[in-house]
Amino acid sequence: MPKTKRAGARSFDLVVFGEFFSDMIFYQLRNQPRFGEEVKTDSFLIAPGGGLATAAIAASRLGSVTGIVTRVGADASVLPTWNEILNEGLDVTACEVRKDQPTALTVSIAYHSNKMMVTHEPINQRLEELLTHKPVRDKLHRARHVHLACALRQPRKWIPVLKELREDGITLSADFGWNPDLSASQLLSIVRHCEFIFPNEHEAKAITGASDAMRALEKLQDWVRVPVIKLDKRGAMLMADGKLYRQPALPIAVVDATGAGDAFDGGFLHAFLHGADWNECLRAGNICGSLSASQPGGSQGLPDAKEYRRHLTAMMQAGEKKRNRM
Predict the structure, then answer these.
(1) To which H or E segment does residue 181 belong?
(2) DSSP state of 132
(3) pTM to 2 decimal places
């Protein structure tokens, strides 16, 4: 069973460091958008976006005491998306408000299970500069676990901080997407400090050069203690101490997959921080990811603790029935 280290009292179960976006989401389109054409829909939503918001909300709703570290613009005080973050009870101390730039914005267009996005985010450039702020460093050290939900640029600025956190008994994870500007050696220099990384199948194969997800998972275990690969509708799998663990997604129709992977991260980390075994961690991630994809926006479908327990019980019972038939 996975266990987290403790180094004295911590203020937070989880602190998520990363990029915040206001998402404008168009979904349930009748036709696939094409250049030079207009597609109309009655289905539209403005919601918090990005890995930081979705992962943090997922963990918080399940009962983890969660804080975030990010950068927003002077417009944040009037943004419904930022107010939603505040209403979720997430701790926003040490977040930076920039008066010279607007909060990052993404327009997301979901068509069936596919999506396209356009983002404006000058404010997120050089986000690693926040690591030099004493309130930020102090907040990170008050967490049991720190999750990095951002592109990991400039490894030389990240590595000293990650070393400090590990030495303080804090576990780390990252969901960084695939950044072709970073070499494999640069990426390895960062993720070797992590307990987990959370690539999807496409990212895992791109990072490792492997031809399939299983080979990618085996390669990633040379980099990080417990690599996790998200398999979309097929659930997720991880490898720990050379043993493979795999759990299915919920059989739920996809409305908008935006943020589903980040929702998985939040559910997985909540379970890990509360002493779950690896199979339950995967189930927790799959529950949050599947329910996220069942609604538009990353956070709209996320379960509360009661709904999560109901789905978890059903998944465990289904798994037990399957084993009994074998």
Answers:
(1) none
(2) G
(3) 0.92
> Domains in the chain, please, with CATH?
12-325 (3.40.1190.20)
| Structure tokens given for 312 | 């978890």
Q: Quickly tell me which residue has 């909540």 as its tokens.
A: 270
174 Cβ contact partners less than 8 Å away, ≥ 6 residues apart: 147, 148, 149, 152, 190, 191, 194, 196, 197, 198
What are the residues whose beta carbons fall under 8 Å from the beta carbon of 23, sequence distance 6 or more? 45, 46, 47, 48, 49, 50, 81, 106, 107, 108, 258, 297, 298
Strand 21-26 vs strand 105-111: parallel, antiparallel, or unpaired? parallel
Q: Please, what sign has the CA dihedral across residues 104, 285, 205, 194?
A: positive
Nearest alpha-carbon partner for 282 in 318, 317, 245, 319: 245
What SS3 class is residue 172?
Answer: strand
pLDDT digits (tens, 9 = 90+) for 208-251: 999 999 999 999 999 999 999 999 999 999 999 999 999 999 99
Q: Are 261 and 289 in contact (CB under 8 A)?
A: yes
Type of residue at 8: G
d(CA 278, CA 269): 11
- Biggest CA–CA distance in the chain, Å, is 62
> How far apart (Å, rounded) are the C-alpha atoms in residues 23 and 115?
13
| Contact yes or no for 80/28 (Cβ under 8 A) | no
Query: Which residues does the chain have with pLDDT short of 70?
Result: 1-9, 113, 178-180, 322-326
Helix, strand, coil distribution of the chain in percent, nearest 5: 40, 20, 35
- Minimal CA–CA distance to 296: which of 4, 5, 28? 28
DSSP string, 76-138: GGG-HHHHHHHHTT-B-TT-EEETTSPPPEEEEEEETTEEEEEEE-GGGTTGGGGGG-HHHHH
What are 82's two structure tokens? 């930022």
Q: Are 159 and 28 in contact (CB under 8 A)?
A: no
Helix, strand, or coil (residue 48): strand
Helix axes 50-62, 278-293, angle to 10 degrees: 120
